[in-house]
Backbone:
C-alpha cells in the first residue's frame, strides 16, 4: 500500500493502529498522502528530518486549521513510532499543532423540535414508510442523545421494549452500552415497529430498525440530506454554504436539556 523509502514502517504503523481498533479511513488517507510526499523527499536509508517536516507543513498552508491538525497529528505519531527504529527521526512537539476552530453547537428549542417532527411526517411520497422512518429517527435522536451513526446501526434485536432499553453495539472506541428510553419514546417505537411489520418489512432480530425504501438499512447521507432540507425549509438553518444547525446538534440539545432538568429538580452533582 506504500511505496516511499519508509513504506515498510508506514505499513507496520498502520497495521499496529488497525489492530488496536483505530480503523478510521481518514488516518489511512493521511498516511497515503504522506507516503506520496516522502517518495520525492527521501532516499533509501533516509528518515524524516526537521527540514522534511517544514516542507510538509509548507505544503499544507492553504488548508483549514482542522485539516492541518489532523495531518500533523498523524505525522507526529508516526515520527514517535519511527524514532524507536531510527533516532535521527525528528520529533514534533504537541505545541506545534495549530489551534483548531471549534464549531459552536446549535441548541434546538422545544418548538423547533416539534416543527422538525411535524415536517418529517409530511415527507413524500405518500403511502410508504419514509415519513414514519424519518420522524421516528428524529424523535429518537432528540430523546436519547444518540449519535446518528449509532442509531442507524440499530437492529430489531437492539430494541428491548420490555425493559425500555436500546443496546448500542460497538460504538465510538468500539464500546457498547445500554441507553434507557422514556415511556413515551418506548411507546412511539412500539407503534413504529408495528408499522414495519404491517408494511411487510423484515422484523427478524438482525433486520435494521431504520430502513431505506429498498428495505435495507437507511444510509447516513440519505437521512442527513433529508434532515438538512427540513431545517432549511423551516429557516432553522441558512442556505447551502452557510454553516449552522446539524444533525449532531440533536445530541448537544439532549445533553443541555438533561442538565437543565437535573438542575431544576435539585439533583446534586458529585463534588
Residues:
Amino acid at each position: 500500500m506504500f511505496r516511499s523509502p519508509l513504506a515498510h514502517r508506514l505499513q507496520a504503523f498502520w497495521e499496529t493502529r488497525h489492530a488496536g481498533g483505530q480503523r478510521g479511513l481518514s488516518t489511512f488517507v493521511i498516511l497515503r498522502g504522506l507516503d506520496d510526499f516522502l517518495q520525492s523527499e527521501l532516499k533509501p536509508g533516509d528518515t524524516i528530518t526537521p527540514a522534511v517536516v517544514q516542507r510538509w507543513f509548507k505544503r499544507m498552508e492553504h488548508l483549514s486549521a482542522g485539516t492541518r491538525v489532523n495531518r500533523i497529528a498523524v505525522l507526529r505519531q508516526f515520527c514517535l513510532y519511527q524514532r524507536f527504529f531510527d533516532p535521527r527521526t525528528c520529533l514534533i512537539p504537541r505545541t506545534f499543532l495549530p489551534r483548531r476552530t471549534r464549531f459552536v453547537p446549535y441548541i434546538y428549542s422545544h418548538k423547533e423540535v416539534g416543527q422538525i417532527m411535524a415536517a418529517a411526517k409530511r415527507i413524500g411520497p405518500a403511502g410508504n414508510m419514509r415519513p414514519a422512518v424519518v420522524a421516528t429517527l428524529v424523535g429518537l435522536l432528540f430523546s436519547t442523545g444518540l449519535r446518528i451513526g449509532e442509531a442507524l446501526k440499530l437492529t430489531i434485536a437492539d430494541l428491548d421494549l420490555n425493559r425500555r432499553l436500546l443496546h448500542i453495539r460497538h460504538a465510538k472506541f468500539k464500546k457498547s452500552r445500554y441507553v434507557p428510553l422514556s415511556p413515551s419514546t418506548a411507546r412511539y417505537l412500539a407503534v413504529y415497529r408495528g408499522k414495519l411489520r404491517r408494511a411487510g418489512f423484515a422484523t427478524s432480530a438482525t433486520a435494521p430498525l431504520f430502513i431505506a425504501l429498498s428495505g435495507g438499512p437507511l444510509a447516513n447521507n440519505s437521512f442527513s440530506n433529508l434532515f438538512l432540507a427540513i431545517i432549511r425549509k423551516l429557516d432553522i438553518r441558512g442556505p447551502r454554504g452557510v454553516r449552522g444547525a446539524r444533525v449532531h446538534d440533536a445530541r448537544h440539545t439532549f445533553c443541555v436539556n438533561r442538565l437543565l432538568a437535573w438542575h431544576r429538580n435539585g439533583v446534586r452533582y458529585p463534588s
Observations:
- The chain has a mean pLDDT of 91.
- DSSP finds ten helices and three strands in the chain.
- The chain has two domains: 7-96, 110-264.
